[in-house]
Amino acid sequence: MKKNLLALLLLLLLSSLAQAQQETPLQQALAQNMVTLSAQAAGGLGRQNLQLKIRSLLKRQIRLRIPPGLHFKAQDSGAQDLFTATEDVLVLEAGAEKLVSLQGFCMNASRYAPAARGVYHFQGLASPSLKVLGDTLARYPPLAEEWGQMFVWAITDGRGLYPVYVDSAFVRPATSLMAHAAAASGQASAGVHVKAKESRSPTVTVFFKKGVLAFHNPTDQRASFILCDAQGNKKWAYYENQPLSHGLKHYTFGVNEIVAVGDEPVYWAKVISESGRVLAQMKVDRHTEARDVQPSVLSFTFQFELRQPVRRASLTLYLQDGTLVEEFKRYSELGIGAYDLHIQFLHLHKTNTPFVAKLLGEDGRVLAQQLVKSP
Description:
The protein is α+β, with helices and mostly antiparallel strands and 375 residues long. 19% of the residues lie in helices and 47% in strands.
């Protein structure tokens, strides 16, 4: 009897030790409710910009493996999702909680970098092509630190690949990474080169800025929102030849580029009409700070009287010098009678700026007009 009891105790002990030594992948532990996870950004891009808080729900010790190639989705829809290329193992005692800091690479080159304390949600493993990239980068941290973001953007956004310069010890893995990123993004390999002995420091860095562009679109039209370099050459587009309705527009966007260390890049974000007219533009450089824009609100009553029916009329607002501000509203038909149209108009001019409200007929004839300004 005693021998059987001892054997049972020994079996339980060995089973417990085996469970303690076995590594459980993070995604499996979450799926089986072994742990809870919350994630937030430290702000910006770079080392340890993603912070995880992991708490054990078990009554025993667990060895938790955090694999590379994880996808974290930003709660802020305008912020970048993050991709990890780090491997770690945590030992959590029963009910214990630990903090882990990882580097999250941007997965959306047209969005802005995460703000400090920005909330992120775990999405599991990234796409197969990114997972392969993450596994390799995890084995070669120097490559990940300098070139990881370029390889990620090539796969996620189709961004260009640049020649890679590495120490001789990393030529083979860098060549493998370049080939994988080129194949996954449908690009030609840009080549891998050995760094000069006198140049052991990083050769490239990540430029990232958040911009806010507010403007008034005067009329319904098609337009493109693009990014140009300092010489006016188009680099890429946020959108192209899309319908743009009239009214106040407010874009919060990201400018993210791989640049040479020491460079001072200058970019121009431009909204261009189908005819090539620049509707709005903004310079972006290292001094750029994202400042929110608060529009002025003009509330007024447009009073007029029609002695005969009017079809396809439009209410349009101008500056006093005749500059079109906005084709505010169209009316398929207006009948005979007196009208009191209560209007709330958002604009970016000074608060006390006067405007001229005009009711225009189908032929452009002025049917009624009124000077309006803030009281």
